[in-house]
Amino acid sequence: MKIFSGIKPSGIIHLGNYIGALRQWVILQDAHECLFCIVDLHALTVRVDPALLRRLTLETAATYIACGLDAKKSVLFIQSHVPPHAELAWILNTLAKISELKLMHQFKEKSKSNPENINAGLFDYPVLMAADILLYDATHVPVGQDQQQHIELARELARRFNSIYGKTFVVPEGMIPPRGAKIMALDNPAKKMEKTGSIGGYIALTDTPDVIRKKIKSAVTDSGSDVLFDEKKKPALSNLITIYHLLSGLSIPAIEKEYQGKGYGQFKKGLSDVTIDFLKPIQQKFSECMGDPGALLRILEKGACAARAQADKKMQKVKENIGLIA
Ligand code: ATP
Ligand code: LTN
User: Nearest to residue 19, comparing CAs of 209, 150, 181?
Assistant: First the structure.
């Protein structure tokens, strides 16, 4: 398997990003060839202050490392350091249909939440994502459930390109985790946890113990008081139990047993403890990384070098096949 995935530096990485994506990446890097990217060009689809974007890009890289990604095992790099991403996106644009891009849920949702800036980049976002993946012949793309539709599009563009210009791209597969693929917002269990959502909805990996306790304490729960996992009848609680399960390693029945007859208050206290304990070493490593930005940049430059070598080779083939004089 060859793995590619990325997170956009649009905010601070939260538990949803960790559980849905990063957690899988850390495991995969031990046995597979992996590239993990900070997709800064994607972050430009929402208006962002340049100084903030620079900071968030470094923080995203530091979070990758703090969560256990290792530059000795994986190629870690910044998307904009490898120009072929944008170049291939342009070429794939000539194959992607406006009608299929209009169907993308993320485009529809982001258009609704940013009605003042429905830019062409936002519309084209999934094509750039397809370029990210296809450039490296990735066979598998570990992501959360919200990205499934974008992966389908990447697969379709690979097949379309191959059928017109001859076999050029690997058709990649999405890898969606069986549990935790869609962690919901703490303050609104009908919406997914997101970096750009309301602040009470997500737990950032850098949140302090006090903030974590406060957010979990005010998390929406369902009616009743029994701590039971039932996604239909108790969607809010099931979301919290899923987080508990994946951060502690305790099975769901064991969690239910532990809190039998104890009510939501005790369970929330337990979840806060588990989360704080889990994040402590990550936060420590994050601070170390951010304390030495020079070392971080060196890792990213080395990663970009390795990625560029692969991407340039692929672009050469793409250009030949499509009739551009390479
Ligand atoms: P934004 O608020 O800017 O849209 P986001 O929080 O949705 O950001 P992305 O950068 O779009 O995060 O996603 C990075 C990775 O995390 C993707 O693989 C995505 O599927 C996964 N992911 C995002 N939100 C969740 C969630 N709530 N549960 C599980 N996985 C998630
Ligand atoms: N679109 C993704 C981020 C992303 C990505 C990728 C994920 C950009 N390029 C390539 C996997 C592979 C998102 O919004 N979460």
Answer: 181
Contact in structure between 74 and 22 (CB atoms under 8 Å): no
Nearest-CA residue for atom 19 of ligand 1: 144
Q: How far apart are CA 21 and CA 86, in angstroms?
A: 23
Helical axes 263-290 vs 235-248, angle rounded to 10°: 50
Q: Which of 13, 57, 132 to mutate to test the pocket of ligand 2 (most atoms within 8 A of CB)?
A: 132
Instruction: Determine if ligand 1 sits within 6 Å of the CB of residue 45.
Output: no
Q: Where are the alpha helices (DSSP H) in 94-147?
A: 98-101, 105-113, 120-134
Alpha carbon of 124 to ligand 1 centroid (Å): 18
- Give the CATH number of domain 206-287; options: 1.10.3720.10, 3.40.190.10, 1.10.240.10, 3.30.1950.10: 1.10.240.10
Q: Are strands 188-192 and 184-185 parallel, antiparallel or unpaired?
A: antiparallel
Cβ 42 under 6 angstroms from ligand 2: yes
Nearest CA to ligand 2 atom 12: 5
Query: Yes or no: is domain 2-180+292-322 CATH 3.40.50.300?
Result: no
Q: Is the CB of 219 under 6 A from ligand 2?
A: no
The residue written with tokens 């490392």 in the block is 65
pLDDT of residue 326: 80
| Binding site membership of 21 for ligand 1 (Cβ less than 6 Å) | yes
Name the closest-CA residue to atom 9, ligand 1.
7
Q: Tell me, using a 6 A CB cutoff, whether residue 181 lines ligand 1.
A: yes
pLDDT band at 14 (very low <50, low <70, confident <90, very high): very high
Q: Where in the chain is the domain with CATH 3.40.50.620?
A: 2-180+292-322
Tens digits of per-residue pLDDT, 64-114? Answer: 999 999 999 999 999 999 999 999 999 999 999 999 999 999 999 999 988
The pLDDT tens digits of the residues spanning 117-135 come to 999 999 999 999 999 999 9
pLDDT tens-digit map of 148-182: 999 999 999 999 999 999 999 999 999 999 999 99
